[in-house]
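Batch job 17 of 40 flagged for manual review because the log was empty.
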Amino acid sequence: MLVIDVGNTHTTFGVYGDRKLLAHWRVSTSSRRTADEWGFVFRSLMEEQGVTKEELFRVVISCVVPPVLDALRQLFGGLWNTPYLVVGPGIKTGLFIRAEAKEVGADRIVNAVAASTLYGGDLVIVDFGTATTFCAVTAKKEYLGGAIAPGIGISCEALYEKTAKLPRIDVEVPERCIGRNTVEAMHAGVFFGYIGLAREIVQRMKREFAEHARVIGTGGWGMVLARYCDFIDVFNPVLTLEGLRIIHELNSS
């Protein structure tokens, strides 16, 4: 089974054999990529791991970029003729959505399904992506809603684009909070400021619904940030892929 999570900046996808993740990849998301090009990307990387498209029995997709979803529908529904499932209205998730369902992104629902199934209990899920999302899920699998903040990468770009003299910087772990020059000061402000942002939102969400809630982290930027976030209890880099696998199981029974 091929599972695909299309984000605004990156697309992650993986191949499962039964419930085991055999391999997974991360590529740039491009709304200009055609169905043929997406097919080439998937086929090339899968074949490196000894998996052919003919072996696929199902594809499960979570997508927040509509033009990419159109291309993937054309690929799997036409060119490859492989049965596919898109996470959206009408799909079984096992969750009770207490927020406005039409306003909740597919990726947030998939993360909530995975976290509630794998870890149980009251949870706060933090996904460090292009945007950083915070989701609250109760032990009864009620999806309460959450918060959305600009991702740390967007924060760096905003400093450069909205100021006259500040340079463009990459995200780096600073040695100190008191920068001795402009670049050091920017690294300190962005990095430590972002950890503070995440901690504050998590603490407030806990106070609103469950002080004892476990915090589950995921997302591309989480690979850099999670180890410095002492409020994160578990970091799972493939949480979304696991959620897509679980959603397939829920909709196959």
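Reviewer: the log was empty due to a logging misconfiguration, but the result itself is present. Residues 218 and 238 are 7 Å apart (CA to CA). Unflagging and moving on to job 18.
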